[in-house]
Design goal:
Helix content is about 75%, strand content about 0%. By secondary structure, it is mainly α. The protein has one domain. Strands 1-2 form a two-stranded antiparallel sheet. The longest helix has 27 residues. The protein starts with a helix and ends with a helix.
């Protein structure tokens, strides 16, 4: 039973992380290859505050705040770059974060941080809390997608220059996407640290950023439902099939290649095609 609880908790946290990137890349079209840095900042903030004696759930707002502030700084630095250059900029942020963590002994250095206090809810209670936060993240994503902000995000993703001509304050909305998305990643990082009871610099490297990006692409960029499904399935695969753990990057890379080649809109695109085909057959 403990294994099932741990697996569900991991899936919920991964869904939160994937949806946080989907808000930046899927909704607003801002490619990020260093998103794991915000997960890591949230994890380290929560872990160190727990070690200082603060109850776990009181560390969540601070984890979100720190990750969101870093997201704002990255957003400010990225306002003048687009597409490939934006991806390289965010990738650099990820490398800088890992380099800083490795050199700072007060952050655990190479050895990482372990032994911080538990949440006090037990494994089952923590699993339910993780599911609740994942559901809140999905609900917030759907709300943003349907409101005016989401429509502006979509317009920026489709044609940024046209939105400027229409009088939309594009930098403001880009910064909003980075701030909200990275703050949610910080919350996922706090949950991640508490779930594993150990964090180290290797947990938040480039591989993790590419992995979560593959989840967003496989699910369908911009689709809340299908990104949730893709994140849940891909995070569970190594647990269901032990051999995949050794070849996770190969499997994720192959899925990413296949989706970009045969279905650029991911599972959401495939589902839409099948539904349209079924309606056509009935007609």
């Amino acid at each position: 039973m403990d294994y099932e609880i741990s697996l569900v908790t991991t899936i919920a946290i991964t869904v939160m992380f994937a949806l946080s990137l989907n808000l930046i890349t899927g909704f607003c079209g801002q490619i990020s290859l260093g998103h794991a840095a915000f997960l890591g900042l949230g994890a380290y903030t929560s872990a160190m505050l727990c070690q200082a004696g603060l109850p776990f759930f009181l560390t969540l707002p601070f984890a979100m705040l720190m990750a969101g502030l870093l997201g704002l700084l990255v957003g400010l630095a990225s306002l003048r770059v687009r597409a490939d250059f934006l991806a390289i900029t965010t990738m650099g942020v990820g490398f800088i974060f890992i380099g800083v963590v490795r050199q700072q002994e007060w952050m655990g250095g190479e050895m990482g941080i372990t032994g911080f206090p538990a949440s006090g809810m037990g494994k089952a209670g923590f699993m339910l809390a993780s599911l609740a936060l994942a559901a809140l993240t999905a609900g917030l994503s759907l709300y943003i997608q349907q409101c005016w902000m989401g429509r502006v995000f979509n317009g920026i993703a489709e044609d940024e220059d046209t939105m400027r001509v229409l009088g939309i304050d594009v930098p403001r909305y880009k910064l909003a996407a980075f701030a909200i998305g990275t703050a949610l990643a910080g919350a996922a990082g706090a949950m991640y640290a508490q779930n594993l009871k150990f964090i180290g610099p290797d947990s938040f490297g480039f591989v993790e950023s590419v992995t979560v990006l593959s989840m967003v692409v496989v699910g369908g960029i911009g689709s809340v439902f299908w990104v949730t499904i893709a994140a849940a399935v891909l995070s569970a695969l190594p647990g269901w099939f032990q051999f995949i753990g050794d070849y996770k990057l190969l499997v994720y890379g192959a899925l990413l290649f296949a989706m970009m080649r045969f279905s650029p809109h991911g599972l959401a695109g495939l589902a839409g095609h099948w539904i349209a085909r079924a309606k056509g057959d009935r007609a």
